[in-house]
Give the backbone structure.
Amino acid sequence: MGKIYMNRELSWLKFNERVLEEAENESVPLCERMTFVSIFESNLDEFFMVRVGSLRDQMLIDDKWKDNKTHMTAQEQIHAIFREVRKLSKRKDKIYEKLMREVERFGICLINFQTAQEEEQQYLEKYFETEIAPLISPTVVGKRQPFPFLRNKEIYAVVVLETRSGKERLGIIPCTNNMLERMIPLPFGQKRYMLSEELILHFMSKVFKGYKIKGKSLIRVIRNADIDADAVYDEDLDYREFMAELMKERKKLSPVRLSLSREMDGNVVRALCRYLDMDTDSVFRERTPLDLSFVFEIEDMLRKNAELFYEKRVPQKTPDIKEGICIMEQIQQEDKMLSYPYESIRTFLNLLLEAAEDENVVSIKMTLYRLAKQSKIIEALCEAAENGKEVVVLVELRARFDEENNIAWSRMLEKAGCQVIYGLENYKVHSKLCLITRKEEGKIEYITQIGTGNYNEKTSRLYTDLSLMTANVDIGLDAAKIFQALSKGEVVEESEHLLVAPKCLQSKVLTLIEEEIRRAKQGEEAYIGLKLNSLTDKKIMDKLVKASCAGVKIEMIVRGICCLVPEIPGKTENIHVISVVGRFLEHSRIYMFGSKERRKYYIGSADFMTRNTVKRVEVAAPVYQENLKERLQQLFDILWNDNQKARLEDQNGDYHIKTDEKEPWNAQEKLYEIAYENIAEK
């Protein structure tokens, strides 16, 4: 019998493999396949920065520590990760090479010096001497010149130099330079290009004159980004300024991965590792360019070839909101729900603007995690504060890799007169919660919005998310209680309607699962349906196993990490798992409990990961209105029946394209078709 649980990190790598499969999939347009290769690589960078970084730290703290699902030590996990990454990297190399051959059919060719024609070589030599050489800063490592600091994710050219006396030196040149064009165009009538780092590497002999070149390579370092703000925070410091300093510190953390573009002598590699204070196990040889972000430049050149891209889709207006009528009034009549990217976030933005201008609105309160670079949300909140409303905003400054953006927005909000809270000690605030409070004729009214995704206009076009807007008083009172607690630096201990982590989400989910177990044991129909980004919470998984053994039918759509292995006889045979990886990033969370006639529906910000259920502030809301329950069920069913982008997980934890005899069914495209039809009918 197979193992019930899978290691979290290895499960994540299986997810990134599914991303890579989209780059392999010939039914996906060419430029979109290139995007998937780039996403695969940037995902992997972040994985090393965060997950491998934290495992490295764990080894230093306690080398005997084991994870609670597979009982692997940090060292064992790192070994397993590196083994899988090397396999995936070889696959990525082949895919990239194939894609670049296909790009050549459209007249764009990426060359190296060996494939360059004679006149091109002459042009490139002159270009190097006039355009690049004056801008680069070479270093020869020696007694008087220490090994330079290598910035995270930047490319460097490294060369082994031999002096006339036979001594070896190391030469290093930074290649990531904003003043340099990454893709150097060749001026001979064809769209032929060379990457600037390859040109620098080729002409190292011109830079380091008087030395013999013994070996050379491009290198790229990935550094640990896992830094615990709460562990090092001094209460005497301004928290925002402390976070700004912390961002600077992150850039200096220890390396966890070293990528090489060429094979280099083992002694040289070991010397590089000594300088960087890392193991040779962390060295990876790459056949593709070390940074694939340039593929987006190629895509821009091919933009006129519509067949190379997905069909253009634009978020539609929701048919549930009538134009020209106050949105708040419409929500007071019945609950509304938006489904991104199929429906536009504009409705919610208009709701905020209405609230900012409504003389009866007394306050707007929001939790903000990730925002767009150009945020209409911030503009609306600032306008509300300037109009005399009480605006209370919790800005989570520990939103990883968005800290600088959030610091800037927090300053703007304060300047406009908003009260800004900078998160809670020990708990990240990841909830997507907005509470608008009105007072009319002495009566208090609430409009509460609960979402599954961030208040971010850009990602609302790229991620699938849900946004519930309700005038339900009980939900409003629960939300008010949450904001009161946050203002005091506390968490909610209990709530009646909303599921609120860290204190009363996991326990309520366990109770809901237990109810289905009880029903199944009584011979009744019992069901659990979950749509999540990740599943790692051991308590919840143990309960799901118990439910499966009791005969509860469990269907789960889990995009990323799934540590629970389904369909194992006698254990998880009633659990079925699919993952949908397609054009849009599946991000919405839906929890469903009970047979059709008694089914309870929730949407929320929390995945079933321990970090979400007990270590963060998260909010999930019940959906009470029948037509919205039907919409959620329809959404789940459409995704469940996908046979184009869905992968079915088997009892070995492996994923296979979900194939059947039915007509092709791409859930995301189907949902967009419905959005277009709805607005056309209106």
